[in-house]
Specification:
Helices cover 28% and strands 22% of the residues. With 119 residues, the protein is α/β, with parallel strands linked by helices. The protein has one domain. Helix 1 packs parallel to helix 3. The longest helix is centred in the C-terminal third of the chain and has 14 residues.
Length: 119
């Protein structure tokens, strides 16, 4: 699974996911730090990457229609590294599952729940 890690997550997040066998690129490594959300979305879309972010703007399905993206995962946690660890476990469990119509995921590690569904 190809992932794009937003700048609002620590660099270690990409390392954790890479260690788990995921192809994870960081927004910061692509000189997109400070770029508009739309530029990050376009790059993720063009590369067929699932965007992982803390930015609630990406949960706006009118601005970022989920069907147009490989996937968007909006994390809801104040502890981003522990959240990535929990997400890594979830992604590993669902590695073979295509996002298909489940292109927007709001993941809350504090409650160990994910809100997923066709959008």
């Amino acid at each position: 699974m190809k992932l794009k890690i937003d700048e609002n997550l620590p660099g270690e997040c990409a390392e954790i996911l890479r260690d788990g066998g995921f192809e994870a690129d960081r927004v910061a490594d692509e000189r997109l730090t400070g770029a508009e959300d739309s530029a990050i979305a376009v790059r993720s879309q063009a590369e067929g990457r699932v965007l992982i972010t803390l930015d609630l703007d990406f949960a706006n399905i009118r601005a970022y229609p989920p069907a147009e993206y490989a996937g968007i995962i909006v994390l809801r946690s104040k502890r981003s590294l522990s959240c990535i660890g929990s997400l890594w476990s979830w992604l590993t469990e669902h590695r073979q599952v295509s996002f298909g119509s489940w292109n927007l995921i709001a993941y809350d590690s504090g409650s160990d729940r994910e809100s997923v569904g066709p959008m």
